[in-house]
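Office hours follow-up: a student asked to see two folded examples consecutively, so here they are.
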Amino acid sequence: MAAFPHKIIFFLVCSTLTHVALAGIFNKRDFTRWPKPRCKMYIPLDPDYNADCPNVTAPVCASNGHTFQNECFFCVEQREFHYRIKFEKYGKCD
């Protein structure tokens, strides 16, 4: 009788892992539905202070065709160019 709960637990764990693996393969992320970056949180209050962007790879494509490492780098660059570059999409530029 003790083997019965172990089989149920094994089945539940395997089915959960299978669901997670297959969802990652078949469900593509629609980056167009994600909100635009909130650049205010990356802009330092003191103009003499440089923003310290995290070393995280989450590509952001700008209107100038440049792919930035993440939205922090995009926002800092956008501020330095006086908002002449615009957000295009999440992901690498084509």
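And the second, which I mentioned at the end of office hours:
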Amino acid sequence: MAAAPEPGEPKERKSLKLLGFLDVENTPCARHSILYGSLGSVVAGFGHFLFTSRIRRSCDVGVGGFILVTLGCWFHCRYNYAKQRIQERIAREEIKKKILYEGTHLDPERKHNGSSSN
């Protein structure tokens, strides 16, 4: 019999894996892309069915809509995620430089303020 977890300990949750390898909970942008892709498939398939009344072709359009919308959202979100990570890294490096040089003769703000008062 397994012991019950303590109230302060985090519970181990089984993460949702899509196709056995895509961890939807822990992969950035995965959940967002899958949800929008499923909505895109319903809209594309149902819209095609309303115009043509062809069931098989509408299902094909729905699958195509899912693939296109999912990939489009995935690439857009991952691009923005990568851009944000780069900006965060640059800001972190600048903060480290600011902390390192603050109050020394290498501080750019100090040189600027010191030269204007002379």
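Two things to take away from it. The mean pLDDT is 82. The beta strands are 17-18, 22-23.
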